[in-house]
């Protein structure tokens, strides 16, 4: 039996199965979820991990014990669960640990309409109530309905981005043995896309590589396949397929900030003068490009529950994060890697340029990418960095420490899910970016010694 305080994070649940997260806990969370949200009905989906069906069934027992009816969607990506919550008007729970290793599992929760449940919007109450309920769940009372939502999900996405008229494209997709292998064929069916699939077999043990496209080593196979097949682009999805990473025709990564700017411009063409959300780690180029196209950029902290809340508050049409999460008002303010990929396909397929030429207009700065450091005393490390940069730039502590100067910035913040400090740095000049990155890492490294 695990410690619920350990597995309940800032905006989801995640832990090692069964040491930290097991069936009795999932069952108790199911009952607590219904009690806290007041839900009469709940929709549940799960990824391909070996533990996911069992944990989902335990949650369903708990929810039904509180007389809630449950719509069980079965296998799905996280954005399929958001589609289910939005289209059915039901609170939802997705069983996944996203890109974490096979021994992990977790839950992402939302209210009706895919409204996120985070630490300050009900997750703590669910945790505390579940802790009281572990081992006490009675026989089910509510009904269980099994419903296949894949076709509806694919059809809905195709109404948001119409790809039927694009020029034929050769696309390599690396699903990483995750849920992209389930959703991509349904979405691409009948479109002018020649698909080369990599690792579409659903396997929660991730036998080929981790389903985490943020790590460069996990993109190597995709990059090679794009070059070897002469593809127009490559797409890599994480384990629950809510994130998408883009590779151009040369086999090079397209920065998520460039994708954010590209999609923002497309959305602003539909919704003139609209608000676009970007987190504080996206490139300086994103707000610049948004303003140039008549939009209103709004900066926010990192994390899906925070992004979604700010989008709902401002009525933003789109939001992007450095981590390749992309959020859409037309998708209930929820994130969908698939929908972002479709925008990239549309931008490429509606004209004759290659992808590297298309995205060059959206990449203006040199970025370090996210550099992680294991640090036991994170607060001390941040203080020392702050002291070192005193008087050299403006300080901002919206989310971790951001220091910015003329044409450069860096952010140093603690991970919400791991004992790490995450550094992102950017500058107009690559040498300047490298110098800032290395100086911060040197200070952090001394603290961790």
From TrEMBL:
Residue span, Alpha-D-phosphohexomutase alpha/beta/alpha domain: 6-121, 153-251, 260-365
Bilayer-spanning residue ranges: none
Alpha-D-phosphohexomutase C-terminal domain location: 370-441
InterPro entries: A-D-PHexomutase_a/b/a-I, A-D-PHexomutase_a/b/a-I/II/III, A-D-PHexomutase_a/b/a-II, A-D-PHexomutase_a/b/a-III, A-D-PHexomutase_C, A-D-PHexomutase_C_sf, Alpha-D-phosphohexomutase_SF
Keyword Magnesium: yes
Domain of life from the UniProt record: Bacteria
Family label: Belongs to the phosphohexose mutase family.
Cofactor(s) needed by this chain: Mg(2+)
Keywords recorded for this protein, A-Z: Isomerase, Magnesium, Metal-binding, Phosphoprotein
Record's protein name: Phosphomannomutase/phosphoglucomutase
Pfam name, any one: PGM_PMM_II
């Amino acid at each position: 039996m695990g410690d619920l305080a350990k597995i309940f994070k800032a905006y989801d649940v995640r832990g090692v199965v069964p040491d930290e997260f097991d069936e009795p806990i999932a069952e108790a969370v199911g009952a607590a979820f219904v009690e806290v949200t007041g839900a009469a009905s709940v929709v549940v989906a799960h990824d391909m991990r070996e533990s996911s069906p069992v944990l989902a069934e335990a949650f369903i027992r708990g929810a039904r014990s509180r007389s809630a009816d449950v719509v069980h969607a079965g296998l799905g990506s996280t954005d399929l669960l958001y589609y289910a919550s939005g289209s059915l008007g039901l609170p939802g729970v997705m069983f996944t640990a996203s890109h974490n290793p096979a021994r992990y599992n977790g839950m992402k929760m939302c209210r009706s309409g895919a409204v996120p449940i985070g630490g300050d919007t009900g997750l703590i109450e669910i945790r505390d109530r579940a802790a009281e309920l572990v081992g006490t769940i009675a026989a089910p009372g509510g009904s269980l309905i099994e419903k296949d939502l894949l076709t509806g999900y694919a059809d809905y996405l195709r109404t948001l981005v119409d790809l039927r008229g694009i020029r034929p494209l050769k696309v390599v997709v690396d699903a990483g043995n995750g849920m992209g292998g389930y959703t991509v064929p349904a979405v691409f069916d009948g479109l002018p896309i020649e698909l080369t699939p990599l690792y579409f077999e659903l396997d929660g043990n991730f036998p080929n590589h981790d389903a985490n496209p943020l790590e460069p080593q996990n993109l190597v196979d995709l990059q090679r396949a794009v070059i070897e097949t002469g593809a127009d682009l490559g797409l890599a999805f994480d384990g629950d397929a809510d994130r998408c990473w883009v590779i151009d025709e040369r086999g090079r990564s397209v920065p998520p900030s460039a994708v954010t700017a590209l999609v923002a411009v497309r959305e602003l063409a539909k919704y003139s003068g609209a608000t676009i959300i970007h987190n504080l780690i996206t490139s300086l180029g994103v707000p610049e490009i948004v303003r140039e196209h008549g939009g209103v950029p709004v900066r926010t902290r990192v994390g899906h529950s925070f992004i979604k809340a700010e989008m709902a508050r401002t009525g933003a049409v789109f939001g992007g994060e450095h981590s390749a999460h992309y959020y859409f008002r037309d998708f209930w303010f929820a994130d969908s890697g698939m929908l972002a990929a479709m925008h990239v396909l549309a931008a490429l397929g509606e004209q004759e340029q290659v992808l590297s030429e298309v995205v060059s207009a959206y990449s203006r700065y040199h970025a370090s990418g996210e550099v992680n450091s294991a640090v036991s005393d994170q607060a001390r490390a941040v203080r020392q960095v702050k002291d070192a940069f005193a008087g050299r730039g403006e300080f901002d502590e919206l989310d971790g420490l951001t220091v910015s100067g003329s044409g450069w910035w860096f952010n140093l913040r603690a991970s919400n899910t791991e004992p790490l400090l995450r550094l992102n740095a950017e500058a107009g000049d690559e040498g300047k970016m490298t110098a800032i990155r290395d100086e911060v890492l040197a200070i952090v490294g001394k603290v961790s010694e």
